[in-house]
């Protein structure tokens, strides 16, 4: 390559909405030295490459030409995962959430007090996440400040776009009192130290910008673990911390916040009992404490009520759908179609180690299955109506909404969107990443469904259109993407 320009010519698939994508068989993509897509031209025939490139001083010999069966897509965005739970992958599936936390998760997370252990684990976490095509991730660390700093250092060194959060857990728990912070003051102090540490890192990339300030790849994210782990005082102070950041650093990205909500029925019941002033709404608990806002990422949202949906929509917070984890821990099936019709922002998350797979492809596959099971249940209710269930009716009052997604199967363009641009929207990054377009960061994957990749799941001999028409190439490209999402 001349200088640090990189030029690709070949197939591109990029999302544009929940129902549509662009499938471009002959696309020219020029990535500049800053890591941004400088220009992108659709439908360029091969014989016109020199004509297109020469006026800008590029040579055709510098172009990376993709074969049919190879294509570029945006990198996957994991909106909810626990870096400290990777060592627990595949353990504890016999439990439900609260028992699993006590018996499997918290004992392992305690080990991250050991800096050497943390460094060893986190290098593998980031490397494997990148190897599985996740270019952006929202990470929960443990409650330990040093471990959280190490996680940020490793993400920055390896070049993953990442939001790093130290868990805030200051509420005493009689069942497992050893894994708790010393005090609310210590929790907030350590959170401030982590923010300062991350802000001091020399970013590996300065290509993304908000206003006039560079937006580094690695950024802090406030992380009240969930309402049962935090005191009211702690959540209030985290809300004030987010407000303070916006006042002191108005040209920088707003402070993101991540937490869990309505993952498990027993968890929901315990939260409502603990916060009686929330009027029976889990989301209202977070709103009362100033941590439910546009930059908040809410993990799971399996059992939201009508009141919850109201508050999430009012604050324009985002939902991270974690179907693999929801299946594995018997948490339930989140009605994502309902949330999409309500206009909520939705992305996908692996939720390692509740989720047993690092790959976002597994999440896409399970999101598809989850929606199909809800669709099947809808058909069964339609053909075999039951007496009205007042608790369920709270979630089905849709008279003022269209039914584009409720009680429907999530189609491939929708699943692709949720894993990319939907996740970017949840993370307030959609102007920078999540799709491939001029001016955006080139956070991308080069995918091949050809036999010579050695992948066992895809029948590579079906990867080519064996025709020269643009329509046939586009149809084959769309087919190849679907096969990649479900077979790779």
TrEMBL record:
GO molecular function, one term: zinc ion binding
Keyword field: Hydrolase, Metal-binding, Zinc
Any Gene Ontology biological process: guanine catabolic process
Entry-linked InterPro entries: Amidohydro-rel (IPR006680), Metal-dep_hydrolase_composite (IPR011059), Metal_Hydrolase (IPR032466), Metallo-dep_hydrolases (IPR051607)
Domain called Amidohydrolase-related: residue spans: 71-447
Cofactor: Zn(2+)
SUPFAM superfamilies on file: Metallo-dependent hydrolases
Annotated GO CC locations: cytosol
Protein name listed in UniProt: Amidohydrolase-related domain-containing protein
Source organism: Leucocoprinus leucothites
């Amino acid at each position: 390559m001349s200088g640090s320009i990189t030029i690709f010519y070949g197939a591109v698939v990029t999302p544009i909405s929940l129902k549509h994508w662009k499938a471009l068989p002959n696309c020219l993509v020029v990535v500049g030295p800053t890591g941004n897509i400088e220009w992108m031209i659709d439908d360029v025939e091969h014989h016109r490459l020199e004509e297109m490139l020469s006026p800008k001083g590029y040579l055709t010999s510098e172009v990376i030409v993709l074969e049919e069966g190879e294509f570029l897509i945006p990198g996957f965005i994991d909106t909810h995962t626990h870096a400290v739970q990777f060592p627990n992958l595949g353990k504890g599936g016999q439990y439900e959430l609260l028992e699993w936390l006590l018996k499997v998760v918290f004992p392992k997370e305690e080990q991250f007090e050991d800096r050497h252990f943390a460094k060893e684990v986190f290098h593998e976490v980031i490397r494997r996440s990148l190897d599985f095509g996740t270019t952006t991730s929202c990470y929960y660390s443990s409650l330990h400040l040093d471990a959280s700093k190490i996680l940020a250092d490793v993400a920055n060194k390896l070049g993953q776009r990442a939001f790093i959060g130290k868990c805030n857990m200051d509420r005493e728990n009689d069942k497992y009192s050893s894994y708790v912070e010393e005090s609310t003051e210590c929790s907030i102090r350590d959170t401030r130290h982590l923010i300062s540490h991350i802000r001091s890192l020399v970013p590996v990339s300065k290509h993304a910008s908000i206003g006039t300030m560079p937006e580094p790849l690695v950024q802090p994210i406030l992380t009240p673990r969930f309402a049962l782990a935090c005191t009211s005082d702690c959540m209030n102070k985290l809300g004030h911390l987010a407000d303070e950041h916006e006042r002191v650093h108005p040209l920088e990205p707003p402070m993101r916040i991540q937490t869990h909500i309505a993952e498990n029925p027993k968890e929901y019941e315990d939260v409502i009992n603990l916060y009686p002033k929330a009027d029976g709404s889990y989301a209202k608990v977070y709103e009362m404490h100033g941590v439910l806002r546009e930059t908040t990422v809410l993990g799971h949202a399996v059992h939201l009520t009508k009141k919850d949906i109201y508050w999430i929509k009012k604050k324009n917070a985002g939902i991270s759908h974690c179907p693999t984890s929801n299946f594995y821990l018997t948490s339930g099936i989140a009605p994502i179609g309902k949330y999409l019709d309500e206009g909520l922002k939705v992305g996908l998350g692996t939720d390692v180690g509740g989720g047993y797979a690092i790959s976002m492809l597994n999440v896409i596959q399970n999101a598809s299955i989850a929606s199909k099971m809800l669709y099947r249940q809808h058909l069964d209710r339609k053909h075999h109506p039951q007496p009205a269930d007042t608790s369920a009716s709270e979630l089905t009052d849709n008279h003022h909404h269209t039914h584009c997604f409720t009680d429907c199967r999530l189609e491939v363009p929708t699943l692709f969107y949720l894993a990319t641009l939907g996740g970017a929207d949840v993370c307030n990054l959609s102007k920078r990443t999540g799709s491939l377009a001029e001016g955006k960061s080139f956070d991308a994957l080069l995918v091949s469904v050809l036999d010579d990749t050695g992948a066992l799941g895809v029948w590579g001999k079906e990867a080519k259109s064996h025709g020269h028409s643009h329509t046939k190439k586009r149809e084959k490209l769309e087919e190849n993407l679907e096969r990649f999402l479900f077979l790779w």
